[in-house]
Every structure is written in C-alpha cells, then in structure tokens.
Design goal:
- This protein is an alpha/beta fold and 363 residues long.
- Helices cover 41% and strands 20% of the residues.
- The protein folds into 2 domains: 133 residues, Response regulator (Rossmann fold, 3-Layer(aba) Sandwich); 207 residues, Methylesterase CheB, C-terminal domain (Rossmann fold, 3-Layer(aba) Sandwich).
- The strands form 3 sheets. A 7-stranded parallel sheet has the order 8-9-7-6-12-13-14, sandwiched between helices.
- Helix 4 links the parallel strand 4 and strand 5.
- The chain is elongated.
Length: 363
C-alpha cells in the first residue's frame, strides 16, 4: 500500500505505442497519479519493475514474447504488486480477464473499440479510479480469504420461500466464487449483481457454472427462479426480483444507471425489499463506492436479514463500509464465514443470524 499523500506511481505495460501514450496521458491528468514508466512487453517490464518499484502496474492482456497471464503469474509469485488489466471487449478477452482476476489482478479496464474521442473521458475516470483503488489494496488477500472445502454439519431445512440477494464490485469475482463454493447444490434461489460489462458477465456465469456446485447462468427476462440456481445480472442491464402470478421471476431493465452503475446493486436490493420482504437475505461484498447501501437498508427495513463482508477480508472495503455505516448491515462476517451465515439466516431468519453471530464471536 502507498504512503498517505504520496502520488500513486504507475508502470504502463502495453505492446501498442498508441495505447501506452493514451493510458499515460489519461493517468497523468490526475494529480494523485504519477506515471513513472512504460514498457512494450513483459521482458522490458520486468527490468522496469526492478528499477522503478511501481505502486500499480497496468497490464495488457495480449502481448508478444510473453502473454499477460504468464507475466501476471510471475509478478504475483516473485514481486506481488497491484495490477489493473487492460482488456479487449470480446468474449476471448473476457475469459482471459476473469482468469487474470483469479490469478491476482485487482481489477480491469476495457479498451474502447470505437469512437475513442467520445469514450476518452469515461475511460479516464474509470482508469484513474481503479488505479488509485488498486494502490490501496493488500495484494494476496484473496488467497487467504478463500472458503476451504470441508464437511458440513447437518442443518435444519432451509425455508422454502427464502431468496438470496448478493451485490459485489471490485474483488467480487474471487469473493463470489469462494462464497458460492461454500453453498450447497440445492441452495435457495440466488440473484447476483456484480459490476461488469456485457460479454464479461456471460463468461463469468459460465466459469462459475463449471466450478460451483449449483447451476449458474446469466439471468433472462421473466425467467422463473428456482432452488439450486444462481442468476447473474447481465452487463448493461439492471436485474430485479419480480412476481409473475404465483412465481418469482427475474426482471431485466435497461433503465438509466443507478448509483453510477448498470447493473446496479441498489436496483436489485430495492426490488427484493418490495417483492420478497422478510423472505429475502441480502449480502453486500467487496467493492468500490456506495452502490447497494440504500437498497440493503430498504431490505433490512422490510424485515430481511442483511449481511456484509468485513473489512479484513474485503479487497476493497467500500460498498460494505458505506452499507454498515448507514445501518443497512445487521452483522459483518469474514468471507470465509459468509456461506454459513447465509444458510443459517435462511433456516429461521433473524434468530438464525443471531445464533451465527454468537458462534463466530466465540470462534
């Protein structure tokens, strides 16, 4: 982590001279960031890292001589440093980026594919924000926060009407995987909003579906929700819980961004408060900003059990912190205990959550 008040020192690694210049210009426009160097490939970057000791590295996914993933593995093994990946908005780029996040990259920024002049301002804000956030993270935290596979004790039956709502942003790719690996294949229906652009959510859902015990897919409009199924908000669409006749369904919307995001965690949580009330369990995980705080408070006021990831296990303690400070979170948990807390909340609501509080406090 950087010293308080010092500018974030960044090394830009990209095989394109045009992109190196663009990223350097956009980053340098922020007085809190200093671009200390650039490199056209990982071999040059390796020497620059030794020489310059940057706080953050921006790394192109696709490069000659050594691909970005191979180089990222070397960085995380030999000289752990916060890395923000620079990715293409393609299906292949999405899959590589998700693998990079699992290896240890903090976040990613998508390269604009057209109309660079109009996309420039938005790219600058996103890049600057994510680089500064990366500088405040503790590299390697997620390796320690993962939920370990273990035998679970017998549980009381989960209430048939329970629905789980989860929101996450930066750090959520690994946090969500760890959390879902701790839930059983027949878990209650689960709706998730993770801040992520189109194509990336498709690849993310497919990856989780391959690795987690339950079925995971992108949510579809008016799709009935079922036990043992997790529904991911598609990039660029809000996901809401709705009722169609006697059944709960997923509802998608392309309404304007809320809390700066589409999909927005606030939109998901507000819909749960209105439609499910006390039958819902709300969970807010690692991420920048404040999205989800207002919606989670609405869920708590509607009688839902609301849980938040604690500071120690959060890659970015932003969204969970704001929600906790606003009184939206009933109880904070480390990521390694979150699955158990959710299951106990689903057994008998608030009383189960209180039992879980006592068991974790005593641990």
């Amino acid at each position: 982590m950087i010293k308080t008040g010092a500018p974030v020192r960044v090394l830009v690694v990209d095989d394109s001279a045009v992109m190196r210049q663009l990223l350097s210009t956009l980053l340098s426009a922020d007085p809190e960031i200093e671009v200390v160097g650039t490199a056209p490939d990982p071999h040059v970057a390796r020497e620059r890292i030794k020489e310059l000791n940057p706080d953050v590295i921006t790394l192109d996914v696709e490069m000659p001589r050594m691909d970005g993933l191979t180089f990222l593995r070397k960085i995380m093994t030999l000289r752990p440093t916060p890395v923000v990946m620079v990715s293409t908005l393609t299906q292949a780029g999405a899959e590589v980026t998700l693998e990079a996040l699992e290896i240890g990259a903090i976040d990613f920024v998508a390269k604009p594919t057209h109309d660079l002049a109009n996309a420039r301002d938005g790219l600058a804000i996103e890049l600057q924000t994510k680089v500064k956030a990366a500088a405040r993270t503790r590299v390697g935290l997620r390796r320690n926060a993962a939920v370990q596979s273990r035998e679970r004790p017998a549980r009381a039956r989960v209430a048939a009407d329970k629905i789980i709502m989860i929101g996450a942003s930066t750090g959520g790719v690994e946090a969500l995987k760890a959390l879902l690996m701790g839930l059983p294949a027949d878990c209650p229906p689960t709706l998730i909003t993770q801040h992520m652009p189109p194509r990336f959510t498709t690849a993310f859902a497919e990856r989780l579906n391959r690795e987690c015990p339950m079925k995971v897919s992108e949510a579809a409009h008016d799709q009935p929700i079922e036990q043992g199924h997790v529904y991911i908000a598609p990039g660029a669409h809000h996901l809401q819980l709705a009722r169609h006749g006697s059944r709960h369904v997923c509802r998608l919307s392309d309404a304007p961004p809320v809390s700066g995001h589409r999909p927005s965690v606030d939109v998901l949580f507000h819909s749960a408060a209105q439609v499910a009330g006390a039958s819902a369990v709300g969970v807010i995980l690692t991420g920048m900003g404040k999205d989800g705080a207002d919606g989670l408070l609405a869920m708590r006021n509607a009688g839902a059990v609301t849980l938040g990831q604690d500071e120690e296990s959060s890659l970015i303690y932003g969204m969970p912190r704001v929600a906790f400070e606003r009184g939206a979170v009933m109880r904070q948990y480390p990521l390694s205990h979150m699955a158990d807390a959710i299951l106990e909340a689903c057994e008998s609501g608030t009383s189960a959550a209180h039992r879980s509080n006592r068991s974790i406090d005593a641990a």
